[in-house]
UniProtKB/TrEMBL annotation:
Lineage: Bacteria, Pseudomonadati, Pseudomonadota, Alphaproteobacteria, Hyphomicrobiales
Gene Ontology BP annotations: D-xylose metabolic process
Localization annotation: Cytoplasm
Record's protein name: Xylose isomerase
Family under the similarity heading: Belongs to the xylose isomerase family.
InterPro entries: Xyl_isomerase-like_sf, Xylose_isom_bac, Xylose_isomerase
Organism from which the protein derives: Pelagibacterium lacus
Positions contributing to Mg(2+) 1 binding: E230, E266, D294, D337
Cofactor: Mg(2+)
Coiled-coil positions: none
Length: 435
């Protein structure tokens, strides 16, 4: 145990009646939910960036956190890794996630940065073997450095496109080496501020070309994980090419990549796109591209992606309902892309944030399973669409009836259909029974 978490014990499940702030009340990794262990359903991961790289600043003030690894080179990065794996072990999470810039200091050249990433991968490899913690996914930070201010794959400068491609390759190599189960492409600046200086058709072609090269390289090196694109609306650029799940699917379909790529959906991004989280999950499931999720929440009084730990059990329950109905995670999982508030400066605050988030997810999972086991909700939903099971309705849906034929039948049979209640309030009350 490193000095940073000194004196703190491994977090245990103590049940709903526990008053211990450093214990789980709902997350019991060994509990069986729908015939499967809870930890196998949820597949929790800690985000390296918010937990260990974020300094607590905001647009009006700088660092509030004092971490011993913030100011330093490779020695500080090693110290950060020690603390990170201590947190993973204290929480008992099976996975973690990282960007390259989270784990190693930037070098003076691409080659030096890549060597430093490899050195940290050596450390990770040892610690993963010692602790049993695995890598859910890796990714490249292609948004913080000023060279990426006009995008990475979509940059008007082909040399920056090339630098981004090389950086992705280095991170895919490390992710593959560490047995990562996914590789994420997070297009933080893949968009534009104004069309006055933007050729959006050119930029989308560039973005598709980068993604196609990533897919080709995945197969070349034998990476068995899933390639994930993370939808990202509004921030930091005004218009994003990966705005939401539907936009990403349309992009993949346009370029013939929909069989090779899935999505990593974040709660905060869903809200910024004007959707609910369960909408984005259900949309991904409907298109067959549901991969993984980043669990957090936004402040409803703020227009920004505040990345707070989740605390809304009904919202989480509905998301896991759609995940369970889609068959659950395969290579994906529940990554906490969430950060402490800038006044939460103590090491144990990292535990409190993750404990609360893991308990909320466990509550949501159990509620979702109960909804499925009860069957009432699914029966009512099926009844609403039952008319489509009829022979004539199926013929219309299969394209066996023309517009003229349908119109003729409506006139011949003097159809006068009347609306039926959507029963939204009843359904909301029904769902709340399980939460």
């Amino acid at each position: 145990m490193s000095d940073f978490f000194k004196g703190l014990d491994k977090v245990r499940y103590e049940g709903p009646d526990s008053t211990n702030p450093l214990a789980f009340r709902h997350y019991d990794p060994d509990a069986i939910v729908l015939g499967k262990r809870m930890d196998d359903h949820l597949r929790f991961a800690v985000a390296y960036w918010h937990s260990f790289a974020w300094e607590g600043g905001d647009p009006f003030g700088g660092r509030t956190f004092e971490r011993p690894w913030f100011d330093g080179g490779m020695d500080a990065a090693r110290q950060k890794a020690d603390a990170a794996f201590d947190l993973f072990t204290l929480l008992g999470v099976p996975y973690f996630c990282f960007h390259d810039a989270d784990v190693r200091p930037e070098g003076e050249s691409y080659a030096e940065s890549t060597r430093r990433l490899g050195a940290l991968a050596d450390i990770f490899e040892t610690k993963m073997a010692e602790t049993g913690v695995k890598l859910l996914w890796g990714t490249a930070n292609l948004f913080s450095n000023r060279r990426f201010m006009a995008g990475a794959a979509t940059n008007p400068d082909p040399e920056i496109f090339a630098y981004a491609a090389a950086t992705i390759k280095a991170n895919m190599d490390v992710t593959h080496r560490l047995g990562g189960e996914n590789y994420v492409l997070w297009g933080g600046r893949e968009g534009y501020e104004t069309l006055l200086n933007t050729n959006l058709g050119q930029e989308m072609d560039q973005m598709a070309r980068m993604l196609a090269m990533v897919i080709d390289y995945k197969h070349k090196i034998g990476f068995k994980g899933t390639i994930l694109v993370e939808p990202k609306p509004q921030e930091p650029t005004k218009h994003q090419y990966d705005y939401d799940v539907a936009t990403v699917y349309g992009f993949l379909k346009k370029y013939g990549l929909e069989q090779e790529v899935k999505v990593n959906i974040e709660v905060g991004h869903a809200i910024l796109a004007g959707h609910t989280f369960e909408h984005e999950v259900a949309m991904a499931a409907a298109h067959g591209i549901l991969g993984s999720i980043d669990m957090n929440r936004n402040d409803m009084q703020s227009g920004w992606d505040t990345d707070q730990f989740p605390n809304n059990a009904p919202e989480v329950a509905l998301a896991y309902y759609h995940i369970l109905k889609a068959g659950g995670f395969t290579t994906g999982g529940t990554n906490f892309d969430a950060k402490l508030r800038r006044q939460s400066i103590d090491p144990e605050d990292l535990l409190h944030g993750h404990i609360g988030g893991m308990d909320i997810c466990a509550r949501g999972l159990k509620a979702a399973a109960a909804i499925i086991e009860d069957g009432t909700y699914e029966r009512l939903l099926a009844e609403r669409y039952a008319g489509w099971d009829g022979a004539e309705a199926q013929a219309m849906l299969r394209g066996e009836r023309t517009l003229e034929e349908i119109a003729a039948r409506v006139e011949r049979e003097a159809l006068d259909p009347q609306p039926r209640s959507g029963r939204q309030e009843y359904l909301e009350n029904l769902i709340n029974r399980f939460v």
